[in-house]
Amino acid sequence: MEGSALWTQCVDNTVCTFTDNVFTANKGTSNDGYTHGGSVYLFGDGVADLRFDDNLIEQSHASGVMFKSFVPTSQGSSLYFQVQGTARIEARRNRIHGQPIDGVIRYDEVVNGEAYLLAKGQGLIVFGDNVVAQSPWQPVVVELSGNGTVDLVNLTLADNHHGVVISGTSTTPAHVSNVLSTAPSGDPDQWADAVLAGNLFGAMPDFVDAVHFNYKLRAGDPAINAGVDAPEGGLGPTDIDGGRRWLGPHPDAGAWEFLDDAVFSNGFDS
């Protein structure tokens, strides 16, 4: 089973764009025990260019069904991206709200990530200015192969059961920049030699309204101005709410740029 709500393969010189969609309470199941993307499955090959921006995925669940001796295994409870050749996927300003653990999830089920990003060949995935929150799994799982790479930049990863996991072997390392995560950074072998810069792991900010997925920063938070100015994958044109991405001396860590009440969204105080 691949992508119960959206399944797309873009190849050769194709340009595929997906914006302003809402995916709610989708469930991907498979009788062979393997599921890729509970809601969304995107595949790029050749020199394809894919964009996935300003979407909401909430309460999705990818579930494999036990078949013979296989343990049910899912990659990407909400979404699964795969690139190969020299294809590219860029995903910005998306909100991924997790599926709480309930009786539907089997004790012997293996789910690898709320978002699963696989880069092979010379493919590139840029995953930036997104929030992944309240998931019972890892918020993001990255797998690298060949010369493929993934850039994680300005993510807010909050109230998830685990942290980011990066695995595989590539001649080009993954980059993790300006990420705000409430989970610890984890063991060194979870990073597969990724290059880290401007991140806050294990942070416990006083978010505006975490219960309702509002993970904006409050004044005085250490994530403010904590990011690096030129992260791999690039700063997005705006933060997740469409405001300026960089207002202070440095960009903030996380998907939201802190906006003081005295400053208008254009960055000026009048």
Description:
The protein has 270 residues and is an all-beta fold. The chain has one domain. Helix content is 0%, strand content 37%. The protein has no helices and 25 strands. The chain has strands at 6-10, 15-19, 22-24, 27-30, 34-36, 40-44, 49-53, 56-58, 61-64, 73-75, 79-83, 88-92, 95-97, 110-112, 115-119, 124-128, 131-133, 140-146, 149-153, 156-158, 165-170, 175-177, 180-181, 195-197, 200-201. The strands form 5 sheets. A 7-stranded parallel beta sheet has the order 2-7-12-16-19-22-24, with no helix packed on it. A 7-stranded parallel beta sheet has the order 3-8-13-17-20-23-25, with no helix packed on it. It has a 6-stranded parallel beta sheet with strand order 1-6-11-15-18-21, with no helix packed on it. The radius of gyration is 18 Å and the shape is globular. 50% of the residues are buried. The model is unreliable at 29-33, 63-72, 101-109 and 262-270 (pLDDT under 50).
Give a concise summary.
This protein is mainly beta and 270 residues long.
**How many discrete domains?**
1
Distance between the termini: 53 Å
- What's the multimeric state? single chain
Tally of individual helices: 0
How many strands in all?
25
Characterize the largest beta sheet: strand count, sense, and whether it forms a barrel.
7 strands, parallel
Q: In terms of topology, how is this protein built?
A:
Blueprint: E1 6-10, E2 15-19, E3 22-24, E4 27-30, E5 34-36, E6 40-44, E7 49-53, E8 56-58, E9 61-64, E10 73-75, E11 79-83, E12 88-92, E13 95-97, E14 110-112, E15 115-119, E16 124-128, E17 131-133, E18 140-146, E19 149-153, E20 156-158, E21 165-170, E22 175-177, E23 180-181, E24 195-197, E25 200-201
Parallel strand pairs: 1-6, 2-7, 3-8, 4-9, 5-10, 6-11, 7-12, 8-13, 10-14, 11-15, 12-16, 13-17, 15-18, 16-19, 17-20, 18-21, 19-22, 20-23, 22-24, 23-25
